[in-house]
Amino acid sequence: MLRAPTRTHRTRRWLTIYALATSAALVAVPATAASGHGTAPGPYGNPYRAHTARPLDDGGDKGGEADEIAEGAAQYAGARTSPGTLAPGAYGAAWNALNKLPSTGGSWRHVTGLTYNSDDPRYRDTDSNSSGGYGDVTGRTAALAADNDGYVYAGSAGGGVWRSRTGGGHWQPISDALPSQSTGALALDHGHLWLGTGEATTNSDAFLGSGVYVLRDPRNGTFSARGRVGGAELDSTTVHELRFGGGKVWAATSRGVWSHSSTDLRGPWKLEFAPNPSYLPGGSQAGDPDAPYKNIASDIAIDPKDPSKVLLAIGWRSGDGYNGFYAKDASGSWQRVNALGDLPTTSDQVGAVTFARAADGSRYYAIDQSPAQLSGGDPNSSLAGIFVSPSGSPLGPWTKVTDYKALSGSGSALTTAKDMVGIQAWYNQFLQVDPNDPKHVYAGLEEVFESKDGGAKWSAVGPYWNFNFPCWSVDPSKQTGDCHQTTHSDQHAVAVGSYHGQTYLYAGNDGGVYRRPLNGSQDASGHATDWTSLNDGTIDTLQYYSVGVGTDREFGGVSVTGGLQDNGQSQLRGRDTVMGSNFGGDGGDTLTDPANGCDIAQEYVYLAVNVTQNCAVNNGAWETDPSKATSYAVAPPDNATNEARFIAPLTTDLKNGNTWVAGGRHIWVQTHGYAIRDPKEWTSAFDLGAGHTATAVAAEGGKVYAAWCGPCDSVGFTRGIAVGNADGTGWHQLSLPTTGAAGTVPNRFLAGFALDPGNADHVYLAVNGFSRQWTSGPGAGVGHLYESRDGGVSWSDISANLPDVPANSVLALPGGGLVVATDLGVLYRAPHATRWQRVGRLPAVAVLQVKLGPDGRLYAATHGRGIWSISLRACH
Asked: How would you class 680 by CB atoms within 10 Å of its CB: exposed for 0-12, middle for 13-18, buried for 19 or more?
């Protein structure tokens, strides 16, 4: 069982966040499911419609993470798509506009370009996952490729493609010149490296891509826009797999299956099959809210003995009538296959699918995820099973070799009800066959499994973590006790390659890239003894939601923290050469005392707030003496009732750092600063109303602004702003008509406030999403940055030449300058100016938050390339 009897440092699983959002090239799907997908409230949203209430101080991990993160993912996507669906081309146009802007002087400094040790022995406090066994981590790896001369290529979720010449490690980015840094697929073919952009895990921070690219000299070159294959046919898609056969490259995408010559890269892609072509761009139903769901392809299996025989795996993970397997009939038209042996073929049993074939063509393997199980048919797992075609033909017949029950009993850490192997099989899948042994196969789900007999018996060689095993210990001198290092959880990518005569398995997951010998060793429990993390600090694809900066009183300089997707909160002290993880789980918003960088508040999810006043440094002594804990769970009450957003807003008063404001359904205030110890110290200043949740809060001198939405997706989307005082007086809702005179605030997601440090009635508002040029919903309007000088009574659009791109946060600088964080970078407007400049040069990656450090530098939290800083002097 997952250990959760008391408030232990294992109270929070490293969460994966999912739904589908955007790309540095284009955006994904609408924020709500259409009527045809009634079981899911978001495009890639919660398939269960509800999540488990899990306040941070509830006594431990109780599972239900697959529910929670689905909802959070839908919210991330909804912020960018509501109130309607988004037309293709939005991010591409924004990227072009951004590149035409003048730039400020100065260069960004990479703050987090060093090793991030998730098992750092300094941080063994109550809410850290340190000692879980992941070791050095970075952001999510979505694709891998490797050769037999030590070259390894890692495609990250949002931070581009990286190359290693040493069998892993010493990484270099090789795709920074592309307009999309989101990876869907990587493949080596005849010495060329193929890249399919657009991550296809259907999760909230998965960004769409700009097509498929080829790098002819992957060992020495870098990707460029000139290397794009075909035309714009695959722009605005996600690419799940690239497969090769018969002189063609096949692409399984979010808009059907396409093919192209693998030798002549000229000419357009050919649409091989789309089950519902009228929903494709240009089709009669392209604007329908269901359109993003209607042509999803998972994978392609090509018969190695006869490349004309191809099996397509088609279908949306939560189910649709078109879900199934398709092959060509005698006339050459694609038809549904109704019998494949044990491999299910009905639409309710075919979801996300991954194929893998033996190098000699003697066997094919498949993982199948069941929409029926995902929608509640089996609350323990959504895995239909793992299957084999022993003839090597993708047309079977297929035999089922294992299911989630057998895998959960093979040394897995996931053995509790409603949280067993494959609970996130729609998100976590890979398959790899040993090139020299067709019966030696690896499968990736939440964990890594290995079979040496064709699937009859499996071992959990990469368990979810070590906490629930007898070998675990919190002892800092042992890192993970007597357990061996495992991989980070949630598997997405796999490859086999060789270096210096040794053949390795490479596994990519939510913590980066790991390897072990292909024929490695196991202990008595079936766990591998030889995993090595390849996240050596030269690769930084960390996906930050927030950043906090404070003076490091002990070591000098500054202490930098930040909340991360599935990698907790990172902590970088003034003298550190290695980052540590002082809080676990998904790290949301972050508060750090500018005068003392060890005074930290970290949000988990749904306003589950923890506070520490010593950077959460702890040797684990609290395990036997609870009084020695130095982190405290202080979640506002909306956490317990699930009336807050997955990543909820949290801030301090600009004039009084001891006054904090948090937003859920209610606007919560506490006045004890970092000395807060009890959730009861929060008081409700205002009730936004049933169904409304705060999206942004700001306070100055006791005056509070709170933006909200509800419903927050495209179906009936509504937003507003409430203004009042921290003591609960004077609250009222502002009038925000969706139509009217110029300057009307659009009917889109209100993402952030900034207050004039000298005048609380002078407020700026950042608006997410895209303008009505790209958004079909009512009242989408134009503009991304608005200003009010009368406390919100009236607003002026000050977007001017700001690119039409989601604005995530805004910062008012001393002296009157403004900084805006967008999905494509950071923009600056000088005091008394009206036009915007690009701040330095960053890759095409989303910046979710900007903050000013006590050292006079601007800090940017990117969702895919770590934290960066630049001197404010560069902006003047």
From this structure: exposed
